[in-house]
Fold these 2 entries.
Entry 1:
Amino acid sequence: MTTPWDRIRGHWSSPTWLRTIHVTTGVPIAFISTGAILGLGALSIVLAWTVVVPLVALLILTRMVPLLTWLQRSRFAAFLDLDIPPPPRLPWDGSPLRRLLLQARSGSLWRQVAYHLAVAPLIGGVGFLSGVVSWSACLVAAVITVQVQVAGGGWTTALPAAAALALFVVVPWLLRGITALDVVAARVLLGPSVKDELARRVETLRESRAEVVEAADAERRRIERDLHDGTQQRLVSLALNLGMARATFTDLPEPARQMIARSHEEAKQALKELRDVVRGLHPAVLNDQGLDAALSGVAARAPFPVRLSVDVPERASPVIEAVAFFVVSEALTNVAKHARASGVDVTVRRDGDVLRLVVRDNGQGGADPARGSGLRGLAQRTGSVDGTLRIDSPSGGPTTIEVELPCA
């Protein structure tokens, strides 16, 4: 059972002393921060006509503020065991002047300046004065109590003793409230904002998705190699053996020869279907020779003329090439199933960091992603790498599918 004395001992545990140190050490840091920032501001205003001085002052500010923030974050970690995440770093690409302007426009920089210039001095000053006054009053009341008791004051000892005890109980709560305000302000102004946190999570999700897509593509390539080098070779051997048996054992009874013939045809059909499955997983020619050779094979197998134009001077990543191959392959499959087209134009071109695909047929049109799983599959494959898909298919045709895939 918890007694009042247990609660009092809890108040005076180590966090109370650490809060006291936290509030006390915040004052010199706030004093230095405020003086340095105000000094730079005043210097920039007085010498604004030079243009150079304000730029140098801004450069110093962008270097000094992160250091001051690190000091404050270290204070929270050391005395309150609180880890405040650092604000996001700005990209360092581009010219020094451009980097300086980006930092000057950063909301994170000015939120930190607001903490160092206004919040830290206010909370630190109030906390320091409150702590000093409270501790001093508690000490004075305790000393008076002892003196009165020594002098034989009797019942008059109760008043300073009660004051000392009240302060003894109140001081920890006062320090807790001050440090709680400081923690809230530090989290809001020294750490990442809600926008920064959302951007970080989006970037994390994008990286995780890219890793999943790469892992899935690597797994497809592994399955393709296993089927090509293992199962397909066994089927080829089986088909050859059955073909040799069919040609050699001509004196067998008719039922036996028919069974061998059917087995031979089924083996050849299974081999053809397996080759189609292997191509659908990940064609080996795509890894070896690139998009031009892989799409040429797809165009050659199409049941209608395909005019193919590939202009990719620099190969994209294996994942992007795989998505591009499957988009064109699936688009041609959809044309063969639904469009009633007599010809298709396929254009693949790389412009900088973008790979553009255009598939245009002269069919009946009316393609709608909401009514077909094939077009939805194109959208899903394109979206998996942050690509864009546009479909223009008026009734009566023609149908144009445009895809842009990022190569960076």
Note: Strands lie at 306-311, 344-351, 354-361, 388-392, 399-406.
Entry 2:
Amino acid sequence: MTTRARRRRSTPRRPARRPRGQAARRRAREQAFTRFALAALVLASVVTVAREHPVATVTLGILATATATATLVFLARTGRLHLPGSPGPRQDVTHTLVAYHRMTGTQFEYAVADLARQDPAVRSATVSGGANDRGLDVLVVLRDGRRIAVQCKRYAESNRVGAPAIYTANGTYRAYHRCDHAVIVTTSRFTRDAELANASLPEPLRLIDGRGLARWIGGGCPPWG
């Protein structure tokens, strides 16, 4: 018998390794079983407490549900959370005027709210647009307490904002929305009649056309600055 043959016989064979896929599936099954056991234990504890203290359990459940609902509504209205089914998701877009032109009207409202939040003087910017918004698309609240009603007009360059928008915003931002100032932001321009109507007001609105919006996007002064 040769020396090489003796070495082969004397060398112990290594146990065959399990395929990585089988080991991963086994760990996944163990983790799933552990989670199921914990969930069953928690459920059993809740059922036991509910039987012993039914009134307290119902009261706590109602309070927890109300708190969770109020929190979700607050986050959604401040633009920090998008609930399924709510109009127009708030999107992270490139801040250029061209990108704003490509948005839908609702997306434009969320983009303006996002732009407003970049100002350190802004406490909150809430999208409030809808079928009966009464001239208010975004409500901006400054840290000094002032409330700004912002109306958003995502129009094509050929479609200018007319005088009726001025009258609508001026007639509702104080009496109905209880705001201190009103702003109309558009990707287009304002007609001559709209500019004259605004100039004739005792407290003119702040009109931001496409050029003004581009300056604001590029780091310029916000309408309430």
Note: The two ends are 97 Å apart (CA to CA).
